[in-house]
Design brief:
CATH topology: Methane Monooxygenase Hydroxylase, Chain G, domain 1
Number of domains: 1
Largest sheet: 2 strands, antiparallel
CATH architecture: Up-down Bundle
Number of helices: 3
CATH class: Mainly Alpha
Strand content: under 5%
Structural class: mainly alpha
Number of strands: 2
């Protein structure tokens, strides 16, 4: 269970949480590989390509989390007439797409 910025609580299913954690673990491993590439003084072009892949994977993880949030949490907020949670989403989206 997660308690948000304004004290709202929502529950992520174990499978949803696991899927996001798996994505983030892969990103973390990929980033460690890029770090090793720099330590090994690999070609800058190769490093840049791998950094682009890491950035894409982070964005993909964020999109998956946002999709879940829209499908579950925001639908619940609308049903319960909770405009504060919708404002929280707007703020999170603004920060995510900067």
């Amino acid at each position: 269970m997660y308690q948000g910025e304004h004290g709202h609580r929502h529950v992520h299913s174990e499978s949803e949480r696991k899927a996001i954690l798996n994505r983030l673990s892969r990103v973390s491993g990929h980033l460690e590989s890029v770090k090793r590439m720099v330590e090994e003084d690999r070609d800058c072009s190769e490093v840049l390509i791998q950094l682009a892949a890491v950035r894409s994977a982070v964005t993909s993880a964020g999109k998956a989390l946002m999709r879940h949030h829209l499908e579950r949490c925001i639908v619940d907020a609308v049903k319960n007439d909770d405009p504060e949670r919708i404002e929280d989403l707007k703020s999170a989206i603004d920060k995510f797409i900067k």
